[in-house]
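Hello,

Following up on my earlier ticket. Below are the two sequence lines again, exactly as submitted.
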Amino acid sequence: MSALQNLFFAINLLLVLTMGVMLTVLPLITRKSLLFGVRIPEPALDHPEVRHLKAIYLVVLAVLSVLTLAAALAIHLVRPAFNLIGSLYLPWPLLIGQFLTTVALWRQAKRLKARENWQVAHLGTAETRSSLARTRFGGLPWAWYLGSLALIVLAALVSLAVYPSMPQTIVTHWNAAMEPDAWADKSLIHVLITPIIALVMLLIMLLSNLAVYRTKLQVSLENPALSYAQHRVYRLWMSHMLGFITVVMTMMFLAFQPMILNLWVPSSALMILIILVTSTLMIVPAIVVSVKAGQGGTRLKPAITDADIAAAGLADALRPASRSGRGDDRFWKLGMFYVNPEDPALFVEDRLGNNGGLNYARPLAWVLVVVLLVLVIATYALSTGLLLDLV
Amino acid sequence: MIIQIDFAGDLPLYSQLRDQIVIGIAAGLLKPGEALPSVRRLAADIGINIHTVNKAYALLRDEGYIVMDRRSGAAVAPRPLDSRGFFEHLADLLRPIAAEAICHELDAEQFGRFCADLHRQVRTVQDIREGHP
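Thanks for your patience. The regenerated structure is below:
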C-alpha cells in the first residue's frame, strides 16, 4: 500500500468521523423545545420518555457511524485503490440511516405528545426593526464575498493575459504521481472553468448566507430580549463563518489555476497538503460555530444590550395570554419538511440541527432543490469519472 | 418591537396585528415617524399570509395610526393624530363593553377605575422607556 493510499484512507476516516459526529450531535444543538420535529412544552423536557428517545438516537447514530468507519477500513484493506471513490459514497448509507431513524423517532414523539396531551402555543413572532433592516441587503458581511470575487476576477484576468502565450497543445490531466497523461488543444473555456466554478460556489455560499439572514426570528416567551440577542449574535457568527469559508474555498479552487495554465505543477504531496489544509479550514469553523451557537443561537449567552431590550419591548404585560393547542406541528411533514402555503417565507429554521430549511409550499423552494440536485449529481458524475481514471 | 400573533387566539390574525401595533405606538415601542417593515417581509417573518398584513396595514392607515407611501413604505404617523370623530368611535367601541360590565354587576366607579388602570399600564411602559418611571 502506497503512502498516497494511506493518506486517502486518512481523509476518508476524517470525513466519515466528521459526518458521524455532526449527525449524532444534531438533537443536542437543536432548539430544546423540538423533539425530532415535534414541538413539546418546556416542562416536558425532563420527561423520561423524551430522554429515552434522544438516547435511542444517540446510540443508533453512534452505531451507524462506527459501521461506516468499519466499511471505510474494509475498503482500505481489500481494495485500497477505491479509497477516494469510497469517500464519495460512504456518507450516503449514513445519511439514509439518519433519515430513517429521525422519521421513526418523529412518529414516537408524535405519539408521546398525543398520549401525554402536551399543549403548546402556536405563535408567529417578528421584530419590527429586524424585519425592516433585513428587507435590504445591508448587514451581510460583504467584505468576504467581494474579496473572493476580486480574487476570482484577478485569476480570470491573469488567465486571459497568459492565454495567447500558451502553446497550442496543453496538458489537461496528470496521474497520481503528477506526471502528464492527457493533452488537448488549448481553449478559453478550459482556462476559465476554475474561475467559473469558483464563482458558482461563491453564489451558492452567498445564497446560504442570505438564507441565514432571512430566516425568521423565533422568540422564547420566557425571555424575548435574550432570544433577540442570541439571534443577533448567531446571525453575525454564521455570516462571518460562511464568508470565511467562501474565501478559503475560492483560494482552494484558484490554487489549481497555475496548474491548468501549465505554468507550474505542484508535487502530489503539496497538492494533498493544500486540499487538507483548506478542508480543515472549512470544516472546523463550521463545526465550532454550529456546536457553540446551537440552533438560532440558543446555546449562546450574549450580553443583552439596551437595544435588545428595546427591540423585545416591555409590552409583554400588554399582550393577551396565548392559547395552548397542538402548536405548528401540522406544517412539518415527517417532522422535517415545512409546507405552509400561507407563509410567504422561503427560508425557515430547520427542525433538527442547525441547517436552513425551506418552505416547500413555495415553487422557488423546488427550483432550489432541483438546482442543488443537478449540481450534486453533476459533481458526483464528474468526480466518479475522474477518480475511476485514477484507479 | 416584538410582534406576536397567536394562531389559536379568538381574534382574527389581522386584528391581532392591528391591535399590537396600536399598543406598540401607545407604549412608545414604535416612535412617531418610525419606519415599519414591508408587508411581504413582515408576513414572511411572522409566517402569515401577505393579505393578512395588508389588511392590518390598510386598517391602521384608514384609522390614521400609520402612513403609507408607495416609495418609502409604511411608517408610524407623526403626532398629533387627527382626533375628529374619535369620541364617537370610542363610544361605539365601549358601549357593548360597558353593557357587559353592567351585566357582571360592575358599578360606574369600578368600570371607570378598570379603564384607568389599563390606561396607566400602557402609559407606564412608555414612561419606563423614556427614563422617568
